[in-house]
Amino acid sequence: RCSILAAVISIFTAFILIAYPVFAGQFAPLFHSAESAMEGGLWDVAAMRLEEAATAADFPAGKMQAVQLMLGECLVRGNRPDDAIEILERSIVRDHPETQFWIGLALAGKGRFADAVETLLQVASDPVNPLQAEAAYTAANLQVSLERHADALAALALLTDSTIPSDSAGSRLRSVAILLDLGRHADARDIFPQSEAVPSGLLRYANLIEGYLLLSEAKPSEAQALFSSLLADPQRQSVSRFNLAAIGMADAIANQGDKA
User: Fold this and answer.
1) 106-109 contact pairs (CB < 8 A, 24+)
2) For residues 150 and 175, what is the distance between their CA atoms, to the nearest angstrom?
3) How many Cα atoms occupy the beta-carbon half-sphere of 100 within 13 Å?
4) pLDDT at 9
């Protein structure tokens, strides 16, 4: 029922935005319409409005870089990677710190995963880039899909010493998950973050990962306690993570039964 309501709202929003009055091609209403479309995930509508805004007669000086960068993002998210790259390689946005991130995603959208990783790592290696963490996680995920697990761990290691607690702890937790998939349980335990280093927003994810780590260490009763706490609070986690907690709970109970 919720998904149907969300779809109806999305369609209604799209209709309103498409029918949005352009006021004789004035920049402000076109730009605000694009922002609203982006907030609603209506990437094609947003791209159309940004293209119109870029040709508005009253286009404000100094705004072109922001508009072109937003347009590049919309084209990437709207699954138009070729158009996105054409925009993002223009001289006005080429040197913006966020540009390489979106080019990396566009390359991934074209199936050029190795090139995408190389581009994203340029961003992930820059600690002052505002999209460093997103680039590192995306590069790591692509490396995992290519079965280059060591390279994925290296990408995540770029965030280990981050001054942003969520990035530092989050990268360690993702690395632990990869190591568990590889059966490297001792290495996973070695890099598992201390509880005081885990921000409150990552505590449930940390409990989930540690639950599986405890299972790998043949400590099913301790793992069960963590999975139980997660299952008792379904509203504060994603469906996928809740399901993983349920699977972990079943494994923990089964493992204790085996011992009995």
Assistant:
1) 106/72, 106/75, 106/76, 106/81, 106/82, 107/81, 108/138, 108/142, 109/76, 109/79, 109/81, 109/84
2) 10
3) 20
4) 47
Q: Quote the pLDDT of residue 14.
A: 53
Cα–Cα distance list, 246 to 177, 192, 204, 217, 223 (Å): 17, 22, 14, 19, 12
Quickly count: other Cβ atoms within 10 Å of residue 60's Cβ.
12
For residue 70, the 8-state DSSP code is H
Length of the chain, in residues: 260
Where are any strands of DSSP class E within the chain? none
Model confidence, pTM: 0.83
Distances 226 to 198, 209, 233, 245, 251 between C-alpha atoms, Å: 16, 10, 11, 9, 13
Tell me the C-alpha distance between 5 and 155, whole Å.
Answer: 39
Distance (Å, rounded) from C-alpha 145 to C-alpha 140? 9
Segments of the chain with pLDDT less than 70: 1-24, 258-260
CA torsion, ordered 198, 204, 209, 215, to nearest 10 deg: 120
Cα distance between residue 144 and residue 152, in whole Å:
6
Query: Torsion over CA of 221, 227, 233 and 238, rounded to 10 degrees?
Result: 180
Residues 6+ apart with CB under 8 A from 30: 22, 49, 50, 52, 53, 56
